[in-house]
Automatic annotation (TrEMBL):
PANTHER family: QUINONE OXIDOREDUCTASE PIG3-RELATED (PTHR48106), QUINONE OXIDOREDUCTASE-RELATED (PTHR48106:SF13)
Ranges of residues in domain Enoyl reductase (ER): 11-322
Record key words, sorted: NADP, Oxidoreductase
InterPro entries: ADH-like_C, ADH-like_N, ER, GroES-like_sf, NAD(P)-bd_dom_sf, QOR-like, Quin_OxRdtase/zeta-crystal_CS
Stretches of the chain forming a coiled coil according to its record: none
Pfam family, one: ADH_N
Any one annotated GO CC term: cytosol
Protein name as it appears in the record: Quinone oxidoreductase
GO molecular function annotations of the record: mRNA 3'-UTR AU-rich region binding; NADPH binding; quinone reductase (NADPH) activity; zinc ion binding
Length: 324
């Protein structure tokens, strides 16, 4: 038996139960991983609340790092004893030990700790595909990135700086503004004291931006469209304030033939080749020191409910992890 978080119904953080589960031997194509650290992400909230449906009862969590204890029949990607990390696949990372598809695991370089890996895989791979695959940013581009002091945001600040991209970031407090600026964000807007649409226009001398990256959703979507120059790209990759309301396509035409995409990491990392290439890029950025992973909150796995409360209240900065 091993400890894990399970939910039997959708709802608030109180629906998460810290229970004993039977893990068993890995099946064909599976590996058993003993976690040393587990990632905490807003997608976990979406599954807990039911915004993203899943059969119940169920586990939570898409990201972790640890050591392979055993492998099932046909597994060639990893071996027992390997240090590994992952982001994606079936929910269930909120656990001390789990079986999971071995094809999702990548070997972890010795220079990267388990805690760093668990804090960066989902968020770092998200930035990797947003900046290099959803669209290919180039030096001199100007972008708008919401929630610039969050886990994804702080990685994006550093990655943009390394690429020579001018990043305008939004945050919810002056303290978060300083944090984003310290990590390489070119211009920072406090959306609680400033009109971000107006400030983007001022910062860009009326030219606006070529790409907006929006993980906030409902509260910022239309304003984000107003920040785009003609033929600009709106990348809606999260719903922290709720799902985007339905809108007419004329909203895009009237602003200059805008493009909109709703990407997900799991579509961009759909093959083993993609996972390996994207992970190698992320590991290289971290090992070079161009991107540093800020773990500003650590919680015991048993305290996952408190971690969710803090995350939803936007009390967290940088990355958060659960420790089994």
């Amino acid at each position: 038996m091993a400890k894990a978080i399970r939910i039997n119904r959708n709802g608030g953080p109180e629906v998460m139960e810290y229970v004993d589960v039977e893990v068993g031997e890995p099946g064909p194509g599976e590996a058993r991983v003993r976690h040393h650290a587990i990632g905490l992400n807003f997608i976990d909230v979406y599954f807990r609340t039911g915004l993203y449906p899943q059969p119940l009862p169920a586990g939570l969590g898409k990201e972790g790092a640890g050591v392979v204890e055993a492998v099932g029949e046909g597994v060639t990607e990893v071996r027992p004893g390997d240090r590994v990390a992952y982001a994606g696949g079936p929910n269930g990372a909120y656990a001390v030990v789990r079986n999971m598809p071995a094809s999702l695991l990548v070997r972890l370089p010795d220079a990267i700790s388990f805690e760093t890996a668990a804090a960066m895989m989902l968020q770092g791979l998200t930035v990797q595909y947003l900046f290099n695959r959803t669209t290919q940013l180039k030096r001199g581009d100007t972008i708008l990135f919401h929630a610039a002091a969050g886990g994804v945001g702080l990685i994006a600040c550093q990655w943009a700086r390394a690429m020579g991209v001018n990043m305008i970031g939004t945050v919810g407090s002056d303290a978060k503004a300083e944090l984003a600026r310290a990590h390489g964000c070119t211009h920072v807007i406090n959306y609680n004291t400033e009109d971000f649409v107006k400030r983007v226009a001022e910062v860009t001398n009326g030219e606006k931006v070529s790409v907006v990256y929006d993980s906030i959703g409902k509260d910022t979507f239309i304003g984000s469209l107003d920040c785009l120059r003609p033929r600009g790209l709106m990348v809606s990759f999260g719903n922290a304030s709720g799902p985007v309301d339905p809108f007419g396509l004329n909203e895009l035409a009237s602003r200059g033939s805008l493009f909109v995409t709703r990407p997900s990491l799991f579509a961009y990392a759909a093959t083993r080749k993609d996972i390996e290439e994207m992970s190698a890029d992320l590991f290289g950025m971290v090992e070079s020191g161009k991107v540093k992973i800020e773990i500003n909150q650590r919680y015991s796995l048993a305290d996952a409910a408190q971690a969710h409360l803090d995350l939803e209240a936007r009390k967290t900065t940088g990355s958060s992890i659960l420790l089994p």
